[in-house]
Amino acid sequence: QPKRMVKFSLDPEPRPYAVVPPFDIKTTRGAHRVAAGKDASYVFVIYSKDESMQKLWYNSSATAMFRAMPPKSHMVFAATDGKGSEGAVNALRTRMENARGFAEVRDRLHFVEKPITLHCTAQEFPKCSAGQGQSVFHQAVVSWGSIEPSLDVTIDGVVEELDASGATGWLPSITDVIKNKGIQSLELAEWGGKACAGEEPSEGMHGKIAMIERGTCGFYTKVAAAMKRGAVAVLVTDSRDSGGSSSMGCGAPDPCDTSDLTIPAAMISYEQGQKLSRQHKMGKAITIKLDARYEGEHFVGIDHHGKLREIGQVPPSNGDESLSLAFVALEAQYYEYEKDVDEKAAAPGILEIMLLHGADQDESDTYLAGGRGIYGNALFPSEAVMAKYDTMQLLMQLECKCGMDKCCGEWDYVVHLHACSEPGMTPAHPAMGAVGAHGVETQGFSYKSCNIEVGRWVTAYGRPGKWLTDASSAMPLVRKGGRQHFVLSQPAWSQQKYRVVSKLLLSNTGKRGIPVASLPLFSGGTFDKNYNKNHGAMEVDIPYRTMRAEIHSFITGHGWGTDSDNCAEFCETQHRFSVRVGMDVDGETFASNDEQLYEHSLTEAGSELGCAAQVQNGVTPNQYGTWNFGRAGWCPGGAVAPWIVDVTKSMRPGMKAIIGYVGLFNSTGYSPKPCHGDACAPNGFAPEIKMMSRLVLYEHPYTKDLDGSSATEPKSWASPSIPLERKTVAHPVAAPRATPVDDGQEHWGWLGGVETAADAGLWPQDDDTPLEMLQVESLHRTVPGYSSRQVWKG
Asked: Is 405 helix (H, G, I), strand (E, B) or coil?
């Protein structure tokens, strides 16, 4: 479950992405000027008496943090005022100085001498200030802090404090209860289960604090059940395998935003819950006092643009506590990634096409939400200008609606961007809006052609994201210029809202040629024993002018908790494409025995740190959930990078391509076996492969005026009884190129100097059937070094 803190406002409150002017800090090595920019970013770690913070401070591996720090990052360690805070900073400095790797990073580690004064207490609820003359950073430490539950439990007169975390804004906070009713001491009542459908409590709940186990159903259901039976507060005990207590989130389909629940709730660890349960069963009198404590912000960043940044949850849910400081350093890795993206977007020769602008969404109050999504109209230049570009990249930003993490969606939902093959059937005005709004259907418009996937992302647990991916598979759709319609969507039932900024970036690598066709190949489906039976081979006509061919694919695995291998989100799968040359003979397509294989393996699936290792590639770090585990081709808070493979060597211009595909588990077809016991999840779902694959063809700019064949939609291919045996041509001649090729290797395509099938070496040697001359084309005008050649069938 996501961990979220209840924030409060400081007036004026510094906002994330505010520019931080340079400021000075006094460190144990003297004064240091904090001036973030292109050559420096900063991450601040602030110590407090919070139990989770103390574990991070004393138990984390310093060496792991050193290794995670990018070369231009600085780490600053300080403390808030409190007993022992200065000693804690000195103890951490000593530990780091003795750790392996310290010498390499010592100049980028800073330990602040004096604690940061918070100037507020929880009892003031709270009226806080950062102090006169303090920097924007110091103000953020104060104003981004949180009020956390403080629970004192009394067992037979002995008092001890419980380390607890609160709900995420969908329930009344404990501070609200204290303001309205004062500090309360409540008798403990144990439900004796998980308070899900059909479960009744083991004792009376009226006027008490109900202790309920985590699991099976959502927190909303548990709190609602307790309130219905008269409880005035809820204490949820964490599950054994969660890795430590975390806050209680709420998501669809529960009515979180319109909740009518009026009692607070908090979560304690599994160990604390077991102890209370044992004491309660022994008949001991147990009361719990509801109070609150104020915590300053533990983590603050300043990126390479000198902007203030939130950092999120450290360590992640179920994360290894020994790597906590390394997770903090991942934030600096993300700043490096963002800087690299910004530099690429601003590189010389880039043509920027705006797709979705955040200001338009603010003005119309139309954001990416559930339903059918939002659309954007992109205006491309003329066909002549478009011919100068061979690559299109997609810059996508999903921003929290209010600019802070607390306003971001809590769950990892898949987001798709689709292009429309018939933009004339979609509305041109307004430039962006909600799909289905503005009377679109009644005006005769249709979104049926909006099914060409251009981008795929997965939302982060409670944080924003920014990504740059290749979208060249859509280049043939936009090459003639003009208006192109795109649709961005997430699950229809999602309650999450995002402010979207998206641009298309055109460039020329000089390697691809002119993109002329983007042809659909294979999609995914339920991953079971019938999966490959549903993916028969396809045959495609390859135009004479083709100089390059690529397969572009989005492939991700989903589903868990229903089979013994935990597929397909957490199991490693292989996706194998095969390509053979095909030839039409008397209306029947024959295929070469020479098969080229191209395989994409989703190797990170199921690994403990698979997604954490992808922060340098754009995965949002330190999310409020179990984001760090590797998934099959995707990560929460990450873009699904298209798998692009050059298959030119397997194609022959003017002939056919026979393209096959299979999905494999452990290099063989998958037949799921049912899970048993704890391996099953009551809310799991069946294995599924989500795939979109397309064949993208490029033509040589020197051959654009030839009257060659054009690409057509692929169709299913059934293998003939006699496959074509591929043989070496006696006098090989290359397919059309800028310069002739005479490398002694076999080349299929343009043939000259042969009269029979036997001469060509393409048919049994005793076959003297004359080859049929199809056409004669003059190539010497556009391809230097070529004279007229005859194109033969065979």
From this structure: helix
User: Nearest-CA neighbor of 174 among 75, 79, 248?
Assistant: 248
User: Residue 543 belongs to what H/E stretch?
Assistant: none
Asked whether residue 360 carries a pLDDT value surpassing 50, the answer given is yes
User: According to the model, what pLDDT value does residue 726 have?
Assistant: 33
Beta strands in 329-444 (DSSP E): 351-356, 374-380, 391-400, 414-419, 432-434
**Residue 157, SS3 per DSSP:** coil
At 101, the pLDDT band (50, 70, 90 cuts) reads very high
- The least confident of 94-98, 209-213, 259-263, 630-634 is 259-263
Strands 789-792, 209-213: pairing kind: unpaired
Q: Are 325 and 57 in contact (CB under 8 A)?
A: no
For 652-704, give the secondary structure using H, E and C. CCCCEEEEEEEEEECCECCCCCECCHHHCCCCCEEEEEEEEEEEEEEECHHHC
DSSP code of residue 616: G
Q: In 3D, which of 211, 258, 260, 209 has the Cα closest to residue 230?
A: 209
Rg (CA), the chain: 31
Among 268-272, 415-419, 428-432, 622-626, which is the least confidently predicted range?
A: 428-432
Q: With beta carbons less than 8 A apart as the criterion, state whether 551 and 598 touch.
A: yes
Tokens 């699936």 sit on residue: 605
For residue 503, pLDDT over 90 is answered with yes
Largest CA distance in the chain: 106
User: How many C-beta neighbours within 10 Å does residue 163 have?
Assistant: 17
Q: Are strands 638-639 and 452-458 parallel, antiparallel or unpaired?
A: antiparallel
| Cβ contact 636:461 at 8 Å | yes
Backbone angles phi, psi at 466, to 5 degrees: -145, 130
Distance CA 419, CA 375 (A): 10
- Identify the residue with better confidence: 726 or 702: 702
Q: Read off the pLDDT of each residue in 514-530 and give the average, rounded to a whole number.
A: 94
